[in-house]
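Continuing from the previous page...

OK, I double-checked the sequence for Protein kinase against my notes and this is the correct one:
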Amino acid sequence: MDAERWRRARALFDQLADASASDWDARLAEACPDDAEVRDEALALLRADRTATSGGALAQAAPQIIAGLAEQIGSEEAAAATAHAGLRLGPFRLVRQIGSGGMGAVWLCERVEGGFSQTVAIKLIRSGWDAADTQRRFLAERQILAGLQHPNIAHLIDGGVTADGKPWLALEYVDGESLLDWCDGHRLGIAERLRLFRVVCDAVAHAHQRLVVHRDLKPSNILVGRDGVVKLLDFGIAKLLDRAGEETATRMFTPDYAAPEQIRGEPITTAVDVYALGLLLYELLTGRRPREARANGEAEPPRPSATTLRDGKESDAGQLAARRGLAPGTLRRRLQGDLDAIVMKALRGEPEQRYASVGEFAADVERHLRDRPVRARRDGWSYRTGRFVRRHRWALAASAAGVLALAAGLAVALWQGREAAAQRDIALREAETAHRTVDVLVGVFKAANPGSHPGETVTPADLLAEGEREVRRKLGAQPVQRAALLEALGRARNGLGTPTQAQPLLEEALALRTAGDDRLAEASVRLALSATRSRLNRSDDSLAEAERAYALSDDDSRQAAELRATADLHAGIELANLDRWAEAEPRLRRSAKTRALLFGEDSEPYWQVLIPLSFNLSAQQRADEALALLDPAWNAIVARTEPGDWQRGYLLDARAYALNRSGRYADAVALHREALAASERIYGNDHPDYYSILSNLGLSLYQNGEMEEAAQVLGRVIEWRTANPKRKQLLRPDKQLRAHALALDASGQSEKAIEVLQRMQREREQIDGVSAAEKAEAWLLLARAQRHAGRHADAEASLATYFAQVDGQEAQAAGLIERSWLALDRGSAGESCADAAQAVELRGTTSKPADRLHAQATLAACWIQIGQRSRARPLIDALSAPELPALAPSQREAVDAALARWRQRNS
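Thanks. Re-ran it with the corrected sequence; updated structure tokens here:
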């Protein structure tokens, strides 16, 4: 059968696919009275389709058709792969074929016009049967892609028509692997896989908002690039929902990832993509496809948790669980409950029983990640309460301890009242405080009852808000009791990472305490206010409150001693934040000594001081001292806990930071990862402390040479900070941007790094306390990124601005080194050697060893470039020494470049 007659048979099939089988013969005779062969072909297709959609197999029903198609397509692809190499399409040249699909082949291509390099993927239409229909779908895909602008959807770059009239389109080239392979290769845990899945959902939801259903979501159409960015591909059979009468594809899908209504030939809605995403999540979590996981005779796939040890395949189960960082039994428990319910809701047979949208599906996944009740499960009291307790177990434990402390205080007060009449008023006041406190707590716990808020989830923030209302409603005439509870509520708000809400509560409590005569109570509130202002990056104000608190705690009681130790701790932290290192260290050491006497060296209060003290030492290039300081506490806690235990979180990040500063970057990365996991279990992934540790992880990854992951991690920190402008109390925001830019530049994403550095410059102009040296450094970093991006003229201009703003030997040497590498890249080796020699002279013997090596490596590269190998040799010998000081990535880049030039010239 020729192509034209085949197209007619396909058109008849499309017209009658949904008609009753009893009407086929009559309607075929009416539509095509003059060609029995076309009628027979159409009838064969209709019968094969009806067999497939009722549970049979199309390959069994029409083997000749399938075999013929496969043979023709295979021969065409082989011929095209040979004939098309080197072909020009618009500004692009075809390099090699990298894939093929139902409509055609995908080629790796390079731009040969326009004055810049670019790699793209070009999709070429396949010639042959039903070309008109294929071209129509192909053009529809081009139109769909043009309307989708999302960072996780491969975007359309260009398009056109070949010389013989076939359309082509150029797409963003994604050099990566499928989502499943990437997750398994990186042994991502369940939470990390769920977060990536949320990214996929966001991209699909973007398409749905533009009335586009993908219809072919599967792992091979979701890639993760080398930069860790997820990209959704291939809208070749997507359907535009606003074109009800204009199908973009007919019964084309991948059976293993098709929804039941697709197989049945029913109308397509967004529920098709919800089902496909459910299949994808099933495989992400278990490593098995739902259809593979079914036992004989099962109509529906088993729950994900039920597959972890299915069929007794212990070795297979062990491998699948290990790729998720778990044992099979642990994986089973991790999937039971929420995740089982979420996946199975997405895989319901009837579309109306699934999630109403991809957004709802993603929201339930997010609720699970945050330990909140998911909509896929029944909202029973025990389930909702269990979720609440799991999210806030430490806060609830602290609350319980507080209630016990209040009860103990009440007992002591009553005893004192009986022992001495002089203490009777104190006892009565403490009793009243306890009574009022219990009264307020009863009101708060009533608010926690889901029966009071049917259909709603009660959060810690809701309970605190209710507590504030109860305090003002019931304690308006009791200033002492009101101040005590306002202070407690303010501390809780600060602990939840919302210092802007904590501050007014604490200021109100302070006003009440100042009006009274209890100096120690006033000191306590001032310390709470100091911690809150520290979170708001107001170090001067925080330090002032700590100093006032210290002065107020001037008696000989144990309580006063505890308050003075806490005041020293706060003061030491803020002095370090203000770069007043020499003043910070003695305050922290005094706090540590006092707390060791009061609580012992195996206590949380003592460890709380060790952490900032170790950070202080590490920042002063005394990392070995910091590790020695932490070792006794670290060994004690390691002896009684397992890796990942939340108690290790007290010391993990500090120890990791010290390891980083001592040059043990790989060890630092491992501990930062454990610290991050502990922080997520305690605080969740929407808390400033979590993102502070994530930022430290990104820096250690960068120092360890893991540039792509470092850029991804630091990008997450920036995204969170941007989305939470009032909660950016991690590092100074411009320092986060600096770290992100360095990682982007080092991972080959220099253009993005330039954008981030320019944003950093703008922020530094708006931040108080930014030094002239920091503002100048921004121009140096910008020049390096511009050089890496090949923008030499821009780099030269940035360096000129840098030199106009700096003085001092070290700063001058840094600029000269960068100008040397710029000259080398531009082929001006003579200029390069003069600058490099001056940099070596400026750094002399007083600079740090790593900085001296940086200058020497630059000079060695220059001498090698102009052929003076004898002058370069002693410098190369120094760079080749087995033991080198810890080098920053930019310094390592210079050393590696010099050694590479030496090897090349001597090969």
